[in-house]
Amino acid sequence: MLKSYYTEDMTEAGCDEAGRGCLAGPVFAAAVILPRDFRNEELRDSKKLTVKQRLELRTLIQSSALAWSVSRVEAEIIDRINILNASFLAMHQAVRGLGMPPQLLLIDGNRFEPFPGIPHICVIRGDDQYLSIAAASVLAKTYRDEYMLSLHELFPQYHWNRNKGYSCKLHREGIMKYGSCVHHRQSFNLVGQLKLEF
Which residues lie across from 107 on neighbouring strands? Predict the structure, then answer.
């Protein structure tokens, strides 16, 4: 089971993002404060869970957490400030959305823009080490996936129901055939080296 907390006596919020490497759609972030006695042996990095497991854990996290918040930053802003800063912005927004102020932020990854008045610790692969970061990982991933499924209804030519906006052959083929749309990150290399013959 992952670790329950980093410190012995501080209120900690785990923070993680989803969608940083996508070609389309927002980057999502979540912040979660879990009770210090929270335990769950299934909770881990959302990428290691099935869709069913993630959704079941989301329900548990939201009912058990002392506070939780999910935020997103759209492609237009990602293009304006770059994806790293957009990820930080999404996490800051998620922290601000918590119903109670944490005393420490546990950040998945190795970089973070300090949040005013709250110290932070960066943890590489933190979503597979701490329950609160893993919980944030699950929330960010599930909410982003659902959002991309809703966008797929409007833009079915990119097959976001299957790739959620990530780079794959089918997605890039759609871009080359139909062009990009308002939800694509224009600052990204949208078609890469892919060449099509028509």
Answer: 15, 122
